[in-house]
Write a structure and sequence with these properties.
With about 170 residues, the chain is of the alpha/beta class. The protein has three helices and ten strands. Strand 7 and strand 8 form a beta hairpin.
Length: about 170
């Protein structure tokens, strides 16, 4: 009558700090918090850390990363995250937040309930092309800053730290 239902792993994780976003700000925040001795989980929806700015080559062995300072800097920050002891969930998407201490996510063949004491939202933003005058044939990139998966009402709490373009502010 139908295909057999595939079992999905369920994970309920508690941590001191949950960092949403694996770009430069998220990786830096996760590294510093973990290096300070906190239990940190970093979640990113992409399969590789780096975000838009430190986007890593699809096949690092085929790319000449030594020629690109931006890729090198990204690799150094990724190594810092790994060395810090922060747990990293790659390919995992935040699906809902019921306050800063109850976040739902899915991906990597599992569903997650994430229960942080503190939440850092460092999601960056999608790239939005905009015309650059006076030449209409030129384009620049502009990235509006702010959470891309959570509404402001879900992110307002003394337990939430929003990271915007390298600066940390409390909402």
């Amino acid at each position: 009558p139908g295909a057999p239902r595939q079992e999905v792993a369920e994970h309920d994780l508690c941590m001191d700090v949950l960092v949403i976003g694996g770009g430069p700000a998220g990786m830096a925040a996760a590294s510093v918090a973990a290096e300070a001795g906190l239990d940190v989980v970093l979640v990113d929806e992409r399969g590789k850390l780096g975000g838009q700015y430190y986007k890593q080559p699809v096949d690092p062995s085929a790319a000449d990363a030594s020629a690109d300072r931006q890729v090198q800097d990204g690799q150094a920050l990724i190594q810092r995250v790994r060395a810090s002891g922060a747990r990293v969930l790659r390919g995992v998407t935040i699906s809902a937040a019921y306050g800063p201490s109850h976040v739902m996510a899915f991906g990597d063949g599992a569903n997650y309930v994430l229960r942080p004491k503190r939440l850092i939202v460092a999601t960056g933003a999608p790239v939005v092309p905009q015309r650059c005058e006076p030449s209409a044939s030129r384009w620049i990139r502009s990235a509006p800053v702010g959470p891309t998966r959570m509404s402001p009402s879900q992110a307002v709490s003394p337990a939430v730290l929003t990271v915007k373009t390298g600066a940390a502010t409390r909402p």
